[in-house]
Amino acid sequence: MYYNDIAYIDKLDRLQEVYPMSAALSEAIGVSRRSLLNWRDRPDSIKVEHRFNIDVLYCKHFVIPVWDTKKQSFTPVLLPDELSSNELLLTPFLRRISYGTIEIETGMARDDFERAVDAKKLPKNMSIEVFHEAVNTYLTHKWLWQKCITHGERFVISEEGIRSLHGDFMRGLRDDAGFYSGKVRVMGGLEAVHTTLPEDIPEEMNRWVFKCKGVETMDEIARAHAYFIAIHPFGDGNGRVGRGLVMAQCLNAGLMPPLFDGENRALYYAAMEHAMVHGRHAPLIRLFIESAKRGRQA
């Protein structure tokens, strides 16, 4: 994504146009005004989490408005035939899409992901949580591919299937893996969005399945994803499950699944917030299409 090629000092200069008072900008980023001054002299001192916050703000104010145009038309990115029959292409693709969805949520190091996936047992100096997160995610994506492509079976979009998907992703990580949350959930990175109340989750998920089980275009899949994340039915792992459903829906429809990772993470968050808060999905749909092209090139 092109915003990654812009220097952070240049991004701060542009954001200063939106937040003329340094106090407002520092609050939006989550740092002190002193930090803003220090960054001017030492831009390499900007921490990873603050770089992400700057990127989200930049995307929110300078990318999303440009992408938010009506009546856009996109060419579907079809699943290439050579991917399904070439193990040398398929394995790297599955690893990249699996690591990407973990990178977005946890910031896991790529080396740790690869060590966990390749290991026959828990690697040295690795927590059991990191091991389970990496292996569960890779094996779940691999299973989705084998079911939909290798064996030619559709992933049936149902509440049971979604809860089972959560169980696959979160096995060994949460005691409530595979069950809806009974508590109020806070949506990390999207504070402006309120999740569905616990007592309303079953009804809202039933409605989601009814509306989204038959989606076949990237437009519909992107809208369904924003709807699912807004519900946030599980105590943790909603992003992984949501993006897993995106992959399943794309494979059902013969479309290339979008690749989400650290490269487009900030735009993903900004586009999701725009869709959920303002009900405007054009930027998210465009992101899905652009990210599917990235996946095809992976």
Automatic annotation (TrEMBL):
Occurrences of domain Fido (ranges): 157-290
Keywords tagged on the record: ATP-binding, Nucleotide-binding
Positions that bind ATP: D236, G237, N238, G239, R240, V241, G242, R243, Y268, Y269
InterPro entries: Fido, Fido-like_dom_sf, Fido_containing
Active site positions: H232
Keyword ATP-binding assigned: yes
Record GO terms (molecular function): ATP binding
Matching SUPFAM superfamilies: Fic-like
Name of the molecule in the record: Fic/DOC family protein
